[in-house]
What does this fold into?
Amino acid sequence: MKNLLFILLFVPTILFSQEWIRYKHSDIEAMLSNDNVRFDVETLAAGNRTITFNVNDEYILSLVTSNQSPHLCYMEVYAPLNDRSLNALVGWFNRNAVRLSNTEWQIYHQGDISEVLLIGKYEVPVITVRYLSSYIH
It folds into this structure.
């Protein structure tokens, strides 16, 4: 029972705090498979691919990977399934990123800069995290 409680409390933290930007498509699939996470892969019109999965019925996460080798993830799209999840995501970015406005943040992680945007113009608000550049040359 203790192990089950640990898994239920710890796995969501791993998925939520995982920085997927700049991971290879094949590595992401391997990590999710190892964690027994069900995911879908779709090829977009430009040849880029998405890996989409549900995180604890809190939000849907889509990872967009480049069509050019080595097929790195350059964008994360979070679609919260309820207001509590949206508030939790915004709170996480408020604590772990540089806040530029109520709807914009920047993340500095392992030499990379990513832009975070809260977009509310869709039926369900989404949060995008997009790779901008590397600040280590």
Observations:
- Helices lie at 2-17, 25-34, 83-96.
- The two ends are 48 Å apart (CA to CA).
